[in-house]
Structure formats: C-alpha cells, structure tokens
Amino acid sequence: MSNHQDNALRPITFPDIIGLTDTKRRIKVSIDAAKARNESLGHVLIDGSKGLGKTTLALCMANEIGTDLLTANAATIKSPRDLLQVLRDIEPRDVLFIDEIHSLPRPVEEFLYTAMEDYRVDIPTGQRTKNVVSVDINPFTLIGATTHVGKVSPPLRDRFRFRETLDPYTDDEIAKIVTINAKKLGCTVGNDAAMAIAIRSRNTPRIAVNNLYWCRDFSQLHGSKNLTLPYVEAAMEDQGIDEMGLTRNDRRYLQVLHDVYGGGAVGKVVLSHSLGIAAETLESDIEPFLLSKGLILRVPSGRQLNTEGFKLCRVLNV
Asked: Is 22 assigned a catalytic role?
C-alpha cells in the first residue's frame, strides 16, 4: 500500500484525459456536489478492460477532490489486517483505490462493509473470541476497479453509490493520445502516422503508449526523431502487429481454430492447450479484440470462427 506515483505520460486532471466525456461529466457533478457539502464522495466502482484508464481516472478524481490517492491491488490483500492500518490512518475525504477488487477474499469484503457504510472498522480482541472493538475512521471514498464486474459479489457491488463502465476508445481518440504523448517524449508524429499507431492499438490507451514508445525507439535507431508513416509501419511490422492490429498470437489463435478445429466450436481449455497459452490469457488478452472485430463467436460449446473470421483466414492463407 503506497501513495500513487505518477509517471510522465499519465494524465493527472480531467481536462488531460482524452475521451470518457460522459463519465467525466457525471463524476465531476458528484465531486462538486460532495465538495459543496464538505462530504466525502460516494464510493465508485469502475469496470472495463485492461489499459482503458481506470487507475488514471482514480488519480484524476483524487486530484479533483483535492486529497491523496492510496492504491492497492486486491491480489496483495490476504486478510483484513492488510487494510486495517491504512483505514485507521486515512485522512478525511482521501481516496482508496483497490484494483481488481473482484479478487478480494470474502473476509476482507465483509471487513470493508462497515468501513464503507458506517466509517468504522471492527477489530477482533483475540484469536479465540468473537468479541470486537469498533473504531471510527475518517470518511473516505473507495474506488474499486475491475476487469470482471460479474465477479464482484452483489453485497459488495451494492455498496458502491456510483458505477461507471469504460468503453474502448475510438481510433480518433487514440490518435490524439499518441500525438499528445509524442510531444511529451520529444518527438513529432504526423497525423497519418498517429492514426497508423492508433489502429494497431486495440482501442486501448495503454497499448497505444507502448506502441508509441516502440516506434520512437525504432525511429531513433534509424536516425530520426520524426515518426513518419514508413517508420511506424516498419516498426509495427517488426513487432508482428498487422494493419488490423492483430498480433502474432491473434493470428495463431485464428490459425489453430481454422486448421485444427475446422473453425470450431472448441472449448477455451482445449484451445489453450493447443496454443500453449493460459486460458485466462486467451480470455482477457486475445479474445476481446477478436470478438470486437467480429472474427470469432463465443457459443455455449466454446469458441468458433464466424463468417468474417473465415474470410480473414483465407486472406491470410492460414
């Protein structure tokens, strides 16, 4: 558990965030109203795919409120004791951000209920007794982030006053993010080159920034600080990312589904063994993009290519 450490490219205020227009507007209304009442903002649950900016949004919310942001990942919180001290020390209206909150153990969830609702924590007085001592804590805002909102238990989910879902960004929004961050990195990028990076970035800011870093390094190695379209295309080809944004693993997935299983349907565990890629990785990193492109379907019996997927496999000669 530590204070949030910002990096050079991360937005730190709402105006810095590209996109998320409706989300920012709704949150700003709630923050302004809470500040006018001198109250803490109600707890917020943010769901969305990896890399869409959940942590960034939490940071900007804390800055908008004018308080500190404390961060934790649910995977590191094993028992209520792991949260006890931070909750006791939290300052009024501070923001506590818990990433992947759906992974919290049930005892930790139950420990959070009174903290969220009544601003108090119940501390057991001994290992062999059910007696507890209730300790008041300062009003705070819990921001929970999740990539699997369906895995957040109903009792925990219902304790969040606000819920926001982050949708994938448009290519135009991603291209704007690329252009702004290129300037921060001390290089220039043409409009066509920025769009070329954008369409290869799976509508995800984090991936776009990673691709930008790679294109900058690639261009620099070839003696240029200018990210022109030829440099970007060559850099992306070197990474195995094609003009649709498909990676090597995406194409392997399609190839196995097409060649080995005749287009499916096949279960994700079987497909995972065939590819040598963890089933969770398939589900979280590969399949969402293929689904968004209309190349595969999830059906009760597993995964299968749809018409567009078959067409692409013929074009790719896989």
From this structure: no
CA 229/CA 217 separation, integer angstroms: 15
β 141-146/44-47 pair status: parallel
C-beta neighbour count of 240 within 10 angstroms: 12
Given the residues 55, 56, 71, 179, select the one marked as catalytic.
Answer: 55
Q: Which residue among 147, 179, 204, 247 is the active-site one?
A: 147
Contacts 24+ apart (CB under 8 A), 124-127: none
pLDDT confidence band for 129 (50 / 70 / 90): low
Which domains does the chain possess?
A: 2-165 (3.40.50.300), 171-238 (1.10.8.60), 248-316 (1.10.10.10)
Tell me which DSSP letter residue 235 carries. H
Residue 265 preceded by cis peptide, ω within 30: yes
Check 28, 163, 206, 293 and give the catalytic one.
206
- Tell me the pLDDT tens digit for each residue of 243-262: 889 999 999 999 999 989 98
Catalytic residue among 10, 24, 54, 200: 54
The percent of the chain in helix, strand and coil, each rounded to the nearest 5, is 50, 15, 35
Residue 73 phi/psi, 5° resolution? -110, 135
Q: Which of 60, 3, 2, 64 is nearest to 35 (CA)?
A: 64
Q: Is 16 a catalytic residue?
A: no
Compute the average pLDDT of residues 3-26: 80
From the candidates 24, 67, 71, 99, which is the catalytic residue?
A: 99
**Taking the model in full, what pTM does it have?**
0.85
Q: Is 71 a catalytic residue?
A: no
Active site residue 37: no
Tell me the chain's radius of gyration from C-alpha atoms: 23
Q: Average pLDDT of 283-301?
A: 89
Whether residue 23 lies in the annotated active site: no
In this prediction, residue 133 carries a pLDDT of 83
pLDDT score for 285: 87
